[in-house]
Amino acid sequence: MRYDRVDARILEIVQKNNRLTSEAIGELVGLSATACQRRLKRLRSEGIIEAEVSIVSPKAVGRPIQMLVLVTLERERSDIIDRLKKAIKSSAEVVNGFYVTGDADFILYVTAPSMEDYEEFTRRFFHKNPDIKGFKTMVVLDRVKAGFAVPVETPPCNKLSNR
């Protein structure tokens, strides 16, 4: 996946505010609205822009309990890993899930309306899964930063031909 300096600037802009119009983005990067729309369409189709989302306050929607959970598997086999990945993707309580190296095999960001609801989730998701050796929960006291913005490396000039 390749992009040029203008694409990099567009990516920086839409990560901060994806509700801007193509006209507004175009003005900021020196392009027409049509040229900006073409670039955004290409960035999406090439998978550079994976999704456009809103960050919702868990507390505002009745899920004030937030946890980071370190999950350890009984053994690391591809079928076991794939099953847990599928379970993570299908669980509404799991907001983010990462397959990682180190002491744990997965790290999950989980929200719940109450500790009782989280306990029920742990029974259903962890205790009933024979592939899970154990899990450790860290309760989030304060969400200091929330976002998905990735620093965009600006390529050198003339990396791509005119688009």
TrEMBL record:
Gene3D superfamilies: 3.30.70.920, Winged helix-like DNA-binding domain superfamily/Winged helix DNA-binding domain. One of its GO terms (biological process) is regulation of DNA-templated transcription. Residues 3-64 form the HTH asnC-type domain. GO terms for cellular component: cytosol. The keyword Transcription regulation applies. GO terms for molecular function: sequence-specific DNA binding. Pfam families: AsnC_trans_reg (PF01037), HTH_24 (PF13412). It comes from the Bacteria. SUPFAM superfamilies: Dimeric alpha+beta barrel (SSF54909), Winged helix' DNA-binding domain (SSF46785). The keyword Cytoplasm does not apply. Keywords: DNA-binding, Transcription, Transcription regulation. This is ArsR family transcriptional regulator. It comes from Bradyrhizobium yuanmingense. The lineage of its organism: Bacteria, Pseudomonadati, Pseudomonadota, Alphaproteobacteria, Hyphomicrobiales.
